[in-house]
Amino acid sequence: MVVQVVDVRLDTPVRGWVEEDMERILLTIGEYPAQVLLGLTERGALDLLDVIKRELAVLSPPDPDDPACEACLDTGDLWVPVARGAVACRECDCPAGRGGA
Fold this sequence. Notes:
Elements: E1 14-19, E2 24-29, E3 36-40, H1 42-59, E4 77-83, E5 86-91
Antiparallel strand pairs: 1-2, 2-3, 4-5
């Protein structure tokens, strides 16, 4: 495995697309010839997003008055209508619902 470091800044070009034949999300970061190509499975992309969100929370802690998840307001509980006048409480798909917050 080759390790290449890319410093991603505001002006760093990042391009992404889905390669359906390979079942991958492909990202290019930077410009040629110092460009990095990432090939991510769906699970790999979700794991990468979770890591980035966790580390961003360290750099900039979330404001309790401005929740990150609009669906559950960072409680982890998602109230879903099941019939007229009835709801069910389900686990939200956000980090709070997965026990990460």
